[in-house]
Amino acid sequence: QVQFVESGGDLVQPGGSLRLSCAASGSMFNIYHIGWYRQAPGKQRDFVAKITSGGSTNYADSVKGRFTISRDNVKNTVYLQMNSLKPEDTAVYYCNIYIGVGVQPRTWGQGTQVTVSS
Asked: How far apart are CA 29 and CA 24, in angstroms?
């Protein structure tokens, strides 16, 4: 079973950038599709981006062109490069196995807080 630890969240000004990391423990990390998700206060957890085992990527419309997901199968790590950040990007960001459209895993890590504010 794969477990994830997110890091890299911070307070950043609008227009700024951050890179989040998702370190995975467990075997066979490279066979999994991995997703980034986010949850703003009082809202449901939403899909942000995913990367398949083969390296194909998909993004939510709200982040397309600003965020980039990548993976390093040697380091068992997935990254989320976030540019041109907006206040509405403020949320706790999580990574997890990507199961499918509209479906989310039951178990989650602690996530990492991203706050975009001047």
From this structure: 7
Q: Cα(4)–Cα(110) distance, rounded to whole angstroms?
A: 9
CA distance 31 to 60: 22
Q: What is the pLDDT of residues 10-69, one digit of tens each?
A: 999 999 999 999 999 977 888 899 999 999 999 999 999 999 999 999 999 999 999 999
Identity (one letter) of the amino acid at 81?
Answer: Q
Strand partners, 114: 91
Q: Are 59 and 69 in contact (CB under 8 A)?
A: yes
Residue 16 carries which side chain, given as an amino acid letter?
A: G
Sheet arrangement for strand 3-7: 3-7, 18-25, 77-82, 67-72
